[in-house]
Amino acid sequence: MTKGSEQPNPLREGLSTRAVPQPCAIAIFGATGDLTHRKLIPALYNLAADGELPPAVAVIGFARRSKSDDEFRNELAQTTKQFSRQDLREDIWKTFAQSILYHQSEFEDESGYQSLAKRLDQIDEERGTRGNRLFYLAAAPEKFEPILKNLKAAGLNKAKEGSWARVIIEKPFGRDLRSAQELNRVVSDAFVEDQTYRIDHFLGKETAQNILVLRFANAIFEPIWNARYIDHVQITAAETLGVEGRAGYYETAGALRDMVQNHLLQLLCLVAMEAPTDLSADSIRDEKVKVVRSLRRYRADEIAKLVVRGQYTKGAINGENVPGYREEENVNPKSETETYVALRLSIETWRWSEVPIYLRVGKHLPKSATEISVHFKKAPMVLFNRDSTEHDQNVLVIRIQPDEGISLRMMAKIPGTSLRIEPVKMDFHYGTSFGKASPEAYERLLLDAMSGDATLFARRDEVEEAWAFIDPIEKAWAEKNAPRLTFYPAGSWGPEEADELLARDGRAWRRL
Fold first, then answer.
1. pLDDT digits (tens, 9 = 90+) for 369-406
2. Which is it for the CA torsion 85, 89, 92, 96, positive or negative?
3. Of 263, 364, 391, 429, which one is the catalytic site residue?
4. What residue ranges define each of the domains in the chain, with the CATH number in brackets?
5. d(CA 366, CA 312)
6. pLDDT at position 420, please?
7. What is the mean pLDDT of the chain?
8. Is 263 one of the catalytic residues?
């Protein structure tokens, strides 16, 4: 068979459920910001390098600063070289850069959107983007409303016949239930729900996507994925970084709003949901919403006992001294903002009845890692009474980042004449097993948005139900007799109260 004449492998037909990305123009609002430079353009470049982008794509950066197309491209070349997961190849970048354009306008200036509409029509004719438009809101949240209103006023929210228009919205999706509902109202006034893609980059990570395959494509796990066999579940998102210049945002958000309301609850939904009827976006999201609705709400008198909030003080990370949170630039010296949260949750369903779920997230911890660990109940040790040592539980660990993979801890006999038992680990790594690095989260999510696949994006009711769970905690923390803020030195694993949260149940946090 000659080169270029390869036929599809029939053994692989039907194995992919992915829709095909379509030609489109991608307009990025906030094109001069960090998100565009660090994530979005490197993601699009990597898709181009891997041959995943459709042949006709145009990227239009929309921002207020004045610059030419070439100036914009040159700036992006430098940051893409720095942040791309692949080395920048000049031939691929040169071709990809020709699709990048710059459009100068204020977000509040309606005329800028009218001129954008004309430019997009011109791009359709010149580049064959077929009238398909993807609008990415990479600007500050307070700019969402004027952008959405002006897109509607310019008619850009309505697709031409045979084409589509979609909008991607970055988190935060509000700061409480009321603001989330208002944001959803503003969005729905311009774009219907099927056009709206609320992005949570944790769901774009390969291991997060693999949770459903692990659970529902392996008969050994699903029968024991319930309260009869599972003792408890832990979800941890640890960072060695502090606020890193984001104090202005972090002071108004805190760890609970920044991480728990979205990332950690989304991971919990994937672990705890029932099997969907099919792999369509709404079937999966229907099951995820049920999990959030099933979370037992805290009574006011339970929050101090079941939720720990902490803040880092000065300490050392990787041998370097770092200041405490209250000593960071632009932070109130008396700030009550939490940089660490630990929670004990309960899901009131048959599958999860009486199984505690422990979540923790923190900054300036000893290690950066995100993982889910499922701790199974101990096997009866009646056969091994001669062995006086304490036997460990079987633990299934799903590593979201870094070193994406899955491991299973089980018990085995140590070689020798005596009967001694010790835990061993079966380990699976994506990089070594499949011989290539996993794509970055934004690569997968951008490709899905171009394909019209909303599976990995949050739906309106998901967002609002999550805020309905979080709001009572935030309310309790804002009251005069609020549960006290605890402290932990940077470089430690958090406040002692977080350890006590599990110790009361006879458990301990898994060491990462």
1. 999 999 999 877 666 665 545 567 889 999 988 888 88
2. positive
3. 263
4. 24-170 (3.40.50.720), 204-440+460-503 (3.30.360.10)
5. 12
6. 73
7. 88
8. yes
